[in-house]
Each structure stands twice: as structure tokens, then as C-alpha cells.
Design goal:
With about 290 residues, the protein is mainly α. About 65% of the residues lie in helices and about 0% in strands. The protein has one domain (about 1-240). The longest helix has about 45 residues, at about 210-255.
Length: about 290
């Protein structure tokens, strides 16, 4: 499985990264920047689909929670009602799963091309395409950045880890959809704090070149968010309108029409004639 992944994903990215490095005057940081932008543009439709789906799932949480509470003892009915409202738990995960191998391939390509040890440099030579003879002369790559940061070694000044933490926090904060559910909201807040710290600790011992990749990727993700925000807002408004219309129609059908009050029928008049004694008190009668 590892060989197949190398052949289909890692090896092409490794050679593309070296080609871009050659075209950009042996500037490794620019090569990472350009390759990351290319990959982000290729996966942009999947990213948009994933963010729209995540936004819809977050907006549907109150409706989903009400359905789950109503049909908690009826699994079949619960699945039917979930399907009716358009609930799809894999809608936001599937595009992300498709992008994941690409991002892992880029990560491995950067690690491989940096070749921080003689053994890794020898290993890199095995993955360079033979029909591209100029690539062999590029190895080892120039790993110095700004004259004092070695991209193949951990950043001893901690500039890269700090930037990784900051950009990861803002990227996670922007791209995580707001939720009305208290438990989901608390989970999202915890993740938005834990992920940046986790990546920061990882970068304390990882090559600085990987940190450059994460910083560039986060910045591109933030830029993509603002570019796609009008589209996301439109999808959110359309989804809110559809939910409102569906809930309005269901409430109108569930409320019964008020019954029309029946006309009151006056009681029938008595046909019994009053007796003569009822004439007492009339004018002309003698009362002694």
C-alpha cells in the first residue's frame, strides 16, 4: 500500500516540487508557496463543498435535535425524517477525505526533498524520475531561508512554531461553522485551542520547512474563506429559507381549522293560551 501511495502521490509531488524549485531560481520557500497554491486551487471545489456542507449541518442542529428527541424510540422513522430534512453525516467528511491523501503526499514530498541526513539524500535519489536528468543536479536543495533559518532543521528561534500556532488558530476559528448546540459549540472551541497548540509543539522538533508549508497553507485557507464567504452566506440564507418554509408548512397542516359556531335556534313559542287569572293587574280590573 505504501509503494502504491508513493508511486501515485508522493513521487509526482516530489518531482513537481523540484521542477518548481528549479524554475524559481532555487528558492525553496517560493517552491513550497507555488506548489501549495496549485494544490489549493485544484482542491478548491472540494473545499467549497465541504464548508457548505458543514455550514448546513451546523444550521440544522436544532431541527435534527428535535427530530432525534421525537423519534428516539423509532429508529426507522428517525432515519426517514433525517433523510427528509437532508441530513447527510458524510457530506462534510467525504470532500475532506479526498483531499487528505493529497495533503499527506505534499507533506511527504517536502520532507523527502529537504533530505536532512545522508541516508535520506540517498533515498531521495531513488524517487527522482530518470527522464528528467536536470533534477538530479538540484540535490541537495538550498535549505537556508532568510540567511539564518535552516529549513531542514527545527527553528531554534521559535519564529516558525509561533507563526504556525497563530495562523492555525485563525484558520480554524474562521473555517469552523458556528453552532447553536451548546455541546457542539464547546467542542469546537476546545478544538480551536488544542489544534494550534498541538501543531506548535510538533514544530518544536520538526524541520522548519514543514512549518513554512503549514503557515502558507493556513494563510491560503484564510484567503479562500474570505473569497468564498459570499457563496457560503448565500448558501446559508437559502438553507435557512428552506427550513423556515418547511417548518411553516408543517405547522400549518398540524393546526386544525377553527370550527364555525352554529347559529342558535330560538326556543319554540308555547301554544298554551294564558289563563284568565293572568289578566290581574291590567287596567280596568277590580282588585279589592
Amino acid at each position: 500500500m505504501g509503494n502504491i501511495f508513493d508511486i501515485l502521490v508522493v513521487n509526482p509531488m516530489t518531482n513537481i516540487l523540484l521542477l518548481i524549485y528549479d524554475l524559481l531560481f532555487h528558492n525553496y520557500v517560493l517552491a513550497i508557496l507555488v506548489l501549495t497554491i496549485i494544490i489549493r486551487l485544484v482542491t478548491l471545489p472540494l473545499t467549497l463543498k465541504q464548508q457548505v456542507s458543514s455550514m448546513k449541518m451546523a444550521a440544522m442542529q436544532p431541527q435534527i435535535k428535535a427530530i432525534q428527541e421525537k423519534y428516539k424510540n423509532e429508529p426507522q422513522k428517525l432515519s426517514e425524517e433525517m433523510r427528509k430534512v437532508g441530513f447527510n453525516p458524510l457530506g462534510g467528511c467525504l470532500p475532506l477525505l479526498i483531499q487528505f491523501p493529497i495533503l499527506i503526499g505534499l507533506y511527504n514530498a517536502i520532507t523527502r526533498t529537504l533530505a536532512v541526513t545522508p541516508l535520506s539524500l540517498l533515498e531521495l535519489g531513488k524517487h527522482i524520475y530518470g527522464f528528467l536528468p536536470n533534477l538530479s543536479s538540484l540535490v541537495p536543495v538550498d535549505s537556508m531561508f532568510l540567511g539564518f533559518i535552516d529549513l531542514g532543521q527545527p527553528d531554534k528561534l521559535y519564529v516558525i512554531p509561533i507563526l504556525v500556532v497563530a495562523t492555525t488558530y485563525f484558520s480554524t476559528k474562521l473555517t469552523t461553522p458556528a453552532s447553536t448546540d451548546a455541546q457542539t459549540k464547546q467542542t469546537n472551541q476546545m478544538m480551536s485551542m488544542m489544534m494550534p497548540v498541538m501543531f506548535g509543539f510538533f514544530m518544536l522538533s520538526a524541520p522548519a520547512g514543514l512549518g513554512i508549508y503549514w503557515i502558507v497553507s493556513n494563510l491560503i485557507g484564510i484567503g479562500q474563506y474570505f473569497i468564498m464567504k459570499p457563496r457560503l452566506d448565500l448558501a446559508k440564507a437559502e438553507h435557512a429559507a428552506s427550513v423556515a418554509s418547511s417548518s411553516g408548512s408543517s405547522s400549518s397542516t398540524s393546526v386544525s381549522k377553527p370550527s364555525t359556531p352554529k347559529a342558535r335556534i330560538p326556543p319554540p313559542r308555547s301554544k298554551v293560551k294564558p289563563s284568565s287569572s293572568a289578566k290581574i293587574g291590567k287596567p280596568g280590573s277590580d282588585i279589592k
